[in-house]
């Protein structure tokens, strides 16, 4: 989020808003800081004490109210720290930011140094504390006296300080008021609306130098503070500005309107600390809105990495909790069940393993000091990652930085600054001073800041502190000073830059080039995003009011337009809050000014289009390198080389003489009256005031036309906080009431997120039906479904980790399940030992007669997951369990069961936890229950390599005589992922069951285990025709996946046996998912209609099946059926590959192409013969082929056209191959096979005319038959012709044993 909006509204464009001093309050004395974690075992010098804001100027700024608690907490996150003369007292620099509730940011830059304690009360209090500590812990007298201030220094700096070890041993680590000098930390802080880090660092270190120097500064410190607060403006966009510190000028620049927003934190240092590979992974986790925890001893490193990673997100912005430095008192925020980006300071010598984090299932842990990151499991990679890493590495190498990371940053100034030795100011080379003076004069003259008199004076006085003080005095008494030749002109002016300026320029160029590489990736990936934005609202008010119900982005169409390799990442990314906010901003730009980042991004896309004219390369997954690296660096170099504006110089203020006396090493008490208000005659403040008046007039005019501002802001906040009720923790107020309110917001946010996610999953799954009901886009891709389910798993993990008493394992949900399992198994054991039964265990009711019931329980599903060796981690097990429960439509029921053990929930969770808020928990379970209305295969489709037990039950027709068989049956089950192979069934494993009317039923039951078959499609059923009772009349085969409980029904209704029906010994049966029985729980029984046909379509029955004998469809019905069957196959191929169902069902199912053609061929067929011997369509085909072969031998076919002759040969060849197959599939099975092969090889429309022309037709068909009507046959050929556009592939189970 750019810091620019911090000073919006009535904010004048001032460089800094506040100057703050934090330190020890001598009046209140030493107060232990309980919030920072008191440790009485430590030496008093190592303990933390409360710091206070000693002064801040001005008292308040209207557009940025001063938040005293937050500033104090972030200036000194670990409180005060003490040292003695024996300790290292290097000053430290760090920065922080405060994010307000509206998302705007204020930046703070802090220079911390040590000041001698002069208060006798503080010294004696420390002495007393030390003596008490020594009496209690005599062994610790020799411990080191370093304090919590060490934590500010990085581990590298600690190791490098040469004085530390020798001095400490000399002093033996104690504190004796008579012998030792006590020092305490003090912080100087500038609070600014924009992150000008280098400029603020330079200003504060110069103020500190002035305090430590032998000679007083040229002017009182008030002059410099007043100057930076009131007389230094923000540089205008695209311009650079120079202002003056105590000793040297300071330059800052601001990007222009078309450039990337300001980012002054050294990105090179971030890359150096982490390495390119780690940084790209961290960037990816940030984009996918995971929980990100940065960990380092050094506050400035935390800030540098946090700011670095968020600036790379352009044009998107982090939308969740953002606390780069988490004060010790706010550690409970790590419990937040929302995405966050936080920085945690590590204590020296603490091991990562000792760090107790509430949840790690979705956590990216970044150990900055050890240059390593721990990533969450299973997330999609950023597109073109290797090429991106390569390009970034080249940019870094160009600036002499290793892309591997882990080396101490050489090219970027580290967070520590060393003080110059005493007297350094006076011993600086005078020549350099005068060169600088002349350059400044030229700049000032050019910018109209100096009159002739001042110019003459400055030429004389630059670099001479004493004369400068005289000049200030002379000016007040009205004396003029003329220029004296020869004074201060010892060096000639040169155009060269100092080493510090060179370093800053180098950093700025590296920053912008690294950021351009990332920005270029987004410009390529989202070049066409605007085409998919749905602009449906007529005005802003109606859009804001209906924001939650509205569909803003056509996700399905956008994804279908993207290169395949990008899809896993993009399908996750377009579900994030940052993307949703980006699209919201785009829609709102119709009615109000464009958000700055969006304006820059849209400008870049327009520019790319001008050059590209929608090049096809935009749609390919080829990596496109950034083309504007050179010009982006040049723009910055030009601004820093040629300064556009110079601010007014610091000058003497109208102060009381004799106050604020200079005392070396002590920061003086500043005169607040001169610092509380700024000058009124400033030309830039006047300019701002005029612009402000113009803005106010414009606002008053538009207020009548638009919304009431408060209402609009309320809507905006609500719209932007969808799914994330709490954007930012409040740093100042830490009362129990506030913490409780914050937790309540978390609970509300989680419930709202659950409602949104389940609604989205339902809407997507319902597809076209939902579109007709007005719920957005149609058809969900398998990829998108997977993304939504992964996001649900993440939400459940966050809910289960909210308010945990003690963390165990990386997955809070799996940990809870294990506790539950242990308790239940213990209870089971006790019940088994006691003779009293505890009632029957609940079982899932049977889906059909003959299928034994399946046990349903949380534990059973856990055991299935625990037996899967492929899953190695707790997080993986929890996700697999969620997927399995969702597929079984038991997720809500299982979780309700888990939470019904209230004693366990109370033991594991604190009172404020989401799972202990009864009303919210009930609503949450209700939202999950709504997912039972749709079918998911999210477990079966993901764990494709696991072994699954299947149960096959063969149910004969109910007459007992027909059910008996002496032959050896076998079965082969096929699914989308493979087949089980032929499974022999033990002879006569006949079981007898009784239905509710005590009628006996028999069935054959077989269990087998094989690799996951996916959704089941066909069953091959057969027997070896042995024994006396070899004929077998089978009603259907039921097959159940014993893990997911999905049961498939494969209807048969035919005989298997020689000399009965069509003589088939094996049949290929086409299955579909069986509906649960009506006596099951009504909600569990709900499901979406079958994907293959609409619920209203009537079932057609095979003509030759047992039930279809008396059924005679009309000609019109037959033709309609063929049209529908062909239409279904066309629709199948028009879907994305991952969404297609089973083609076998469309070809051979009950409403498939084979059945429809069978009806066509049966129309007018003379099938009844003497003694009622049935003649089959296959008999006609065989006779026709026999006629063609004999005609060919007699030479009758010689005169036919060449193609027709070839067609005739192909038909004879196919029929012969089917007949000579080793399989005993029967005559109807052979006809089915011929149709399937003809459709696959695009021969059906060539074979039909041959069969129609054959004289056999007149003998076997009546005059009225459809096959004898030329017009109807030609229409059929036209319909079948449409199948030639599609590559039809047949399942192995259909064509097994056919050699073509």
UniProtKB/TrEMBL annotation:
InterPro entries named among the record's database cross-references: cDENN_dom, dDENN_dom, DEN5A/B, DENN_C, PLAT/LH2_dom, PLAT/LH2_dom_sf, PLAT_RAB6IP1, Run_dom
Domain (UDENN) ranges: 33-593
SMART domains, sorted: dDENN, DENN, RUN, uDENN
GO cellular component terms, semicolon-separated: membrane
Low complexity: compositionally biased ranges: 139-168, 408-427
Residues covered by the PLAT domain: 948-1070
Entry keyword Repeat: yes
Annotated segments matching region Disordered: 134-168, 407-434, 681-702, 828-849, 1087-1106
Pfam family of the protein (one): PLAT
Keyword Membrane attached: yes
Keyword list, A-Z: Guanine-nucleotide releasing factor, Membrane, Repeat
All copies of domain RUN, residue ranges: 783-944, 1144-1293
UniProt feature, compositional bias: Polar residues: 681-691, 1094-1105
Annotated localization: Membrane
Stated family: Belongs to the RAB6IP1 family.
Protein name: DENN/MADD domain containing 5B
Species the sequence originates in: Hucho hucho
């Amino acid at each position: 989020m750019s810091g620019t909006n911090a000073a919006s509204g009535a904010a004048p464009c001032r460089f800094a808003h506040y100057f703050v001093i934090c330190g020890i309050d001598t009046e209140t004395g030493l107060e232990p800081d309980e919030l920072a974690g008191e440790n009485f075992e430590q030496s008093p010098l190592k303990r933390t004490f409360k710091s206070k804001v000693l002064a801040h100027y001005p008292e308040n700024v209207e557009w940025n109210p001063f938040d005293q608690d937050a500033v104090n907490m972030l200036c000194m996150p670990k409180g005060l720290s003490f040292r003695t003369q024996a300790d290292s007292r290097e000053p430290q620099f760090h920065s922080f930011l405060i994010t307000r509730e509206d998302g705007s940011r204020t930046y703070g830059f802090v220079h911390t140094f040590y000041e001698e304690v002069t208060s006798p009360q503080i010294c004696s209090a420390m002495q007393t504390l030390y003596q008490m500590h020594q009496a209690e812990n005599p062994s610790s007298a020799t411990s080191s006296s370093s304090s919590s201030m060490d934590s500010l220094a990085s581990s590298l700096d600690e190791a490098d300080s040469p004085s530390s070890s020798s001095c400490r041993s000399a002093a033996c680590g104690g504190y004796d008021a008579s012998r030792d000098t006590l020092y305490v930390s003090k912080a100087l802080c500038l609070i600014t609306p924009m992150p000008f880090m280098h400029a603020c660092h330079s200003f504060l270190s110069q103020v500190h130098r002035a305090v430590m120097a032998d000679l007083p500064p040229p002017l009182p410190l008030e002059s410099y503070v007043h100057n930076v607060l009131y007389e230094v403006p923000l540089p205008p966009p695209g311009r650079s500005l120079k202002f003056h510190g105590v000793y040297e000028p300071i330059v800052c620049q601001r990007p222009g309107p078309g450039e990337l927003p300001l980012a002054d934190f050294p990105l090179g240092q971030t890359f150096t600390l982490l390495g390119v590979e780690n940084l790209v992974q961290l960037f990816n986790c940030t984009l996918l809105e995971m929980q990100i925890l940065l960990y380092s001893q050094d506050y400035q490193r935390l800030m540098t990495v946090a700011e670095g990673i968020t600036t790379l997100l352009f044009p998107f912005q982090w939308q969740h909790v953002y606390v780069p430095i988490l004060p010790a008192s706010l550690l409970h925020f790590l419990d937040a069940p929302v995405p966050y980006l936080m920085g945690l300071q590590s204590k020296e010598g603490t091991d990562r393993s000792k760090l107790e984090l509430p949840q790690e299932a979705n956590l990216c842990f970044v150990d900055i000091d050890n240059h390593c990151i721990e990533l969450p499991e299973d997330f999609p990679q950023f597109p073109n990652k290797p090429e991106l890493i390569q390009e970034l590495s080249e940019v870094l190498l160009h600036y002499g930085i290793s892309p591997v990371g882990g080396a101490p940053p050489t090219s970027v100034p580290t967070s520590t600054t060393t003080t110059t030795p005493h007297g350094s100011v006076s011993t600086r080379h005078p020549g350099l001073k005068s060169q600088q003076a002349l350059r400044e004069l030229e700049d000032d003259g050019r910018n109209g800041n100096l009159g002739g008199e001042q110019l003459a004076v400055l030429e004389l006085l630059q670099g001479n502190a004493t004369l400068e003080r005289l000049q200030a005095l002379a000016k007040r008494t009205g004396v003029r000073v003329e220029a004296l030749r020869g004074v201060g002109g010892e060096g000639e002016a040169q155009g060269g830059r100092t080493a510090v300026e060179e370093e800053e320029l180098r950093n700025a160029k590296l920053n912008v080039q690294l950021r351009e590489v990332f920005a270029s990736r987004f410009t390529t990936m989202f070049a066409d995003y605007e085409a998919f934005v749905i602009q449906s609202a007529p005005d802003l008010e109606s859009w804001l009011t209906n924001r939650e119900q509205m569909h803003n982005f056509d996700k399905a169409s956008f994804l279908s337009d993207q290169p395949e390799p990008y899809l896993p990442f993009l399908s996750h990314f377009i579900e994030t809050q940052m993307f949703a906010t980006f699209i919201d901003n785009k829609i709102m730009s119709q009615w109000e000014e464009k958000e700055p980042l969006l304006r820059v991004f849209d400008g870049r896309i327009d520019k790319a289009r001008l050059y590209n004219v929608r090049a096809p390369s935009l749609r390919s997954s080829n990596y496109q390198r950034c083309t504007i690296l050179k010009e982006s660096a040049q723009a910055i170099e030009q601004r820093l080389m040629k300064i556009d504006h110079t601010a007014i110089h610091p000058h003497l203020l109208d102060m009381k003489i004799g106050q604020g006396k200079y005392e070396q090493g002590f920061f003086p008490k500043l005169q607040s009256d001169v610092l509380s208000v700024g000058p009124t005659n400033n030309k830039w403040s006047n300019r701002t005031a005029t612009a402000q008046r113009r803005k106010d007039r414009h606002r008053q005019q538009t207020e009548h036309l638009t919304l009431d501002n408060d209402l609009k802001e309320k809507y905006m906040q609500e719209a932007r906080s969808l799914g994330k009720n709490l954007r930012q923790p409040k740093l100042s107020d830490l009362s129990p009431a506030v913490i409780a309110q914050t937790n309540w917001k978390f609970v509300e946010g989680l419930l709202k997120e659950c409602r949104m996610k389940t609604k989205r999953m339902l809407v997507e799954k319902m597809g076209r039906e939902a579109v007709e009901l007005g719920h957005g886009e149609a058809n969900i891709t398998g990829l998108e479904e997977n993304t939504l389910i992964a996001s649900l798993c993440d939400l459940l993990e966050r809910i289960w980790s909210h308010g945990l008493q003690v963390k165990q394992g990386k997955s809070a949900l799996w940990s809870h399940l294990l506790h539950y399992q242990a308790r239940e198994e213990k209870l089971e054991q006790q019940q088994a030992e006691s003779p009293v039964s505890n009632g029957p265990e609940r079982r899932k009711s049977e889906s059909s007669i003959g299928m034994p019931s399946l046990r349903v329980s949380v534990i059973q599903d856990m055991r299935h997951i625990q037996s899967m060796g492929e899953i190695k981690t707790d997080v993986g097990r929890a996700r697999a369990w969620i997927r399995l429960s969702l597929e079984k439509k038991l997720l809500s029921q299982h979780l309700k069961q888990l939470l019904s053990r209230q004693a366990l929930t109370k033991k594991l969770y604190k009172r404020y936890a989401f799972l202990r808020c009864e009303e919210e928990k009930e609503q949450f379970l209700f939202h999950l229950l709504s997912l039972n209305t749709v079918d998911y295969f999210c477990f079966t489709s993901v764990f494709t390599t696991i072994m699954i037990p299947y149960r096959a039950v063969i149910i004969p027709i109910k007459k007992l005589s027909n059910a008996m068989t002496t032959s050896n049956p076998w079965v082969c089950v096929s699914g989308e992922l493979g087949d089980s192979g032929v499974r022999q069934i033990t002879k006569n494993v006949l079981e007898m069951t009784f239905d509710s009317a005590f009628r006996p039923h028999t069935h054959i039951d077989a269990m087998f285990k094989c690799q996951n078959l996916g959704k089941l499609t066909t069953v091959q059923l057969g027997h070896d025709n042995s024994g006396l009772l070899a004929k077998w009349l089978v009603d259907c085969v039921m097959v159940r996946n014993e893990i997911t409980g999905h049961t498939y029904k494969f209807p048969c209704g035919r005989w298997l046996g020689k000399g009965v029906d069509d003589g088939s010994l094996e049949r290929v049966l086409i299955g579909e998912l069986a509906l649960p029985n009506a006596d099951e729980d009504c909600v569990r029984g709900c499901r979406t209609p079958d994907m293959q046909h609409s619920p209203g379509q009537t079932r057609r029955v095979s003509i030759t099946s047992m039930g279809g004998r008396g059924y005679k469809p009309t000609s019109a019905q037959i033709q309609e059926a063929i049209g529908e069957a062909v239409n279904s196959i066309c629709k199948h191929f028009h879907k994305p590959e991952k969404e297609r169902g089973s083609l076998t069902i469309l070809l051979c199912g009950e409403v498939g192409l084979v059945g429809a053609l069978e009806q066509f061929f049966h129309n007018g067929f003379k099938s009844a013969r003497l003694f009622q011997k049935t003649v089959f369509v296959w008999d006609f085909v065989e006779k026709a082929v026999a006629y063609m072969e004999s005609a060919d031998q007699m030479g009758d076919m010689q005169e036919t056209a060449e193609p027709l002759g070839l067609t005739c040969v192909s038909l004879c060849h196919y029929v012969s191959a089917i007949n000579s197959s080793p399989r005993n599939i029967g005559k109807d099975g052979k006809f089915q096979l011929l149709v399937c092969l003809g459709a696959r090889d695009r021969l059906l429309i060539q074979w039909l005319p041959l069969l129609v022309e054959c004289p056999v037709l007149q003998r076997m068909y009546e005059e009225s038959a459809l096959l004898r009507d030329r017009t109807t046959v030609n229409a059929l050929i036209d319909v079948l012709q449409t199948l030639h556009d599609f590559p039809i592939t047949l399942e192995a189970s259909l064509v097994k044993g056919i050699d073509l």
